[in-house]
UniProtKB/TrEMBL annotation:
It is found in: Cell membrane; Membrane. Keywords: Cell membrane, Membrane, NAD, Quinone, Translocase, Transmembrane, Transmembrane helix, Ubiquinone. This is NADH-quinone oxidoreductase subunit H. Its EC number is 7.1.1.-. NDH-1 shuttles electrons from NADH, via FMN and iron-sulfur (Fe-S) centers, to quinones in the respiratory chain. The immediate electron acceptor for the enzyme in this species is believed to be ubiquinone. Couples the redox reaction to proton translocation (for every two electrons transferred, four hydrogen ions are translocated across the cytoplasmic membrane), and thus conserves the redox energy in a proton gradient. This subunit may bind ubiquinone. PROSITE patterns: COMPLEX1_ND1_1 (PS00667), COMPLEX1_ND1_2 (PS00668). It comes from Streptomyces amritsarensis. The keyword Transmembrane helix applies. HAMAP family: NDH1_NuoH. Residues 396-450 are annotated as: Disordered.
Length: 450
């Protein structure tokens, strides 16, 4: 039985629950996200404070664990301001558009095995709200819709800095979702399905982080850019945009943007766990000697622990790495991640095709390794000849060339490649310059008058 057939049989387990059980599972998914967000905010402030040798929140509740609730109450009680130049309808809808799609992706995330049903009030059901044959495409679509909230928030505010933040978010989404889609495609090739439950089932023998390490690294980088988190938090960088797309927002609207960011962190972490870290499966040392580790309610524990581990990774990045420049962000997305993800996808497809033709692992490694070495050699030769041409062109441009006058057009401009500035006159030696004393003569005219 191949993976595609297995996925079809697993999908038949969904859609049979009674209405009140579906409602309970939906409320659980919502509560899971909210509780995880409340914990993540406190955990982030605690961890960053520990990394920076500070105390952190310690006033509200035991060990400051109720700090998130205090922040939520404070935001609710703040004055809700709508700026005068804003497009009021879009201005109000933007935070809602950003928050709602963040909750929707969790509907297709498996918290436990589809074939191992649990009992809830006497009803047997799967530990997943629902599943789709194209569940991963659904997650990509939902994540893309959430970006519209940020873009519309920047545009509708009627201010310059929020507009720039919204445009940055749009460009960032386009740059990073292409590489993210290529990383997903590698997983689809190995699992044979886009269903989340089938992808987890395909990792029974080996997690995809072992088989597809490059895809995992690419997805980790893109999920940080997708959630606008440091060091890729350019849409809301306070250094040059005051606060970015949410500068003109306050009270509950600002809270919705903050909630959407943290819910997206939980969602992308859950997707990463599902695609690369075995989903709800117990780690190898535990699953090897405990047969019941992947049955009953235990898979929920392993899933939550893996998600918290990735959330700690988000926090660790924020506490250690500085914000990159916007040009560096775009260069990483278009010149590094997209080419690497496309080449890696071609390699994965080649390996899968050779495996389907019953080639041995040694032969596949030889063919793929030979192709990689050939491409590297061709790239090296091309770089050598390109450097020689650039040096020769620079040398020819430097011959018989008049000095560049930066003030020729009436205002200073930087030199273009191949242009050279005129040498700057050196200052007089230190001994020829006179020290200016208070009350003394400091110019030649002063000495002449004296």
């Amino acid at each position: 039985m191949n993976t595609v057939q297995l996925a079809a049989e697993d999908l038949s387990l969904f859609g049979r629950d009674v209405w009140w059980l579906v409602l309970i599972k939906a409320v659980f998914c919502f509560a899971f996200l909210m509780v995880t967000v409340l914990f993540s905010i406190v955990w982030e402030r605690k961890v960053v404070a520990w990394m920076q040798l500070r105390i952190g929140p310690n006033r509200h509740g035991p060990w400051g664990m109720l700090q998130s609730l205090a922040d939520g109450v404070k935001l609710m009680l703040k004055e809700d301001i709508i700026v005068k130049r804003a497009d009021k309808v879009v201005y109000v809808l933007a935070p809602i558009i950003a928050a709602i799609p963040a909750f929707m992706a969790i509907a297709v995330i498996p918290f436990g095995p589809a074939g191992n049903e649990v009992s809830i009030f006497g009803q047997r059901t799967t530990m997943q709200l629902t599943d789709l044959p194209i569940a991963m495409l659904y997650i990509l679509a939902v994540a893309s819709v959430g970006i519209y909230g940020i873009v519309l928030a920047g545009w509708s505010s009627g201010s310059t800095y929020p507009l720039l933040g919204g445009l940055r978010s749009c460009a960032q989404m386009i740059s990073y979702e292409i590489a993210m889609g290529a990383a997903f495609a590698s997983v689809f090739l190995y699992s044979g399905s886009m269903s989340t439950s089938a992808i987890v089932e395909a990792q029974q023998d080996r997690w995809f982080i072992v088989l597809l390490p490059v895809s995992f690294i690419i997805y980790v980088v893109t999920m940080v850019g997708e959630t606008n988190r440091a060091p890729f938090d350019m849409p809301e960088s306070e250094g040059d945009l005051v606060g970015g797309f949410n500068t003109e927002y306050s009270s509950i609207k600002f809270a919705l943007f903050m909630l959407a960011e943290y819910v997206n962190m939980v969602t992308v972490s859950a997707v990463s766990v599902t695609l690369f870290l075995g989903g709800w499966r117990a780690p190898y040392p535990i699953s090897s000697f405990w047969e019941g580790a992947n049955h009953g309610w235990w898979p929920l524990l392993w899933f939550v622990l893996k998600v918290q581990l990735l959330l700690f990774f988000f926090i660790w990045l924020r506490g250690t790495l500085p914000r990159v420049r916007y040009d560096q962000l775009m260069k990483l997305g278009w010149k590094v991640l997209i080419p690497v993800s496309v080449v890696w996808l071609m390699m994965v497809a080649t390996v899968r095709a050779l495996r389907n033709e019953a080639y041995e692992i040694a032969d596949i490694a030889l063919y793929v390794g030979g192709a990689v070495v050939a491409i590297l050699l061709l790239s090296f030769v091309a770089d050598v000849f390109r450097d020689k041409r650039e040096k020769a062109a620079a040398a020819d441009a430097g011959k018989d060339t008049a000095p560049f006058d930066p003030l020729a057009g009436g205002f200073p401009v930087p030199p273009k490649p191949g242009q050279h500035l005129a040498p700057v006159p050196r200052r007089r030696p230190r001994g020829e310059r006179e020290l200016i004393a208070s009350g003394g003569a400091n110019t030649d005219s002063d000495r002449e008058e004296a």
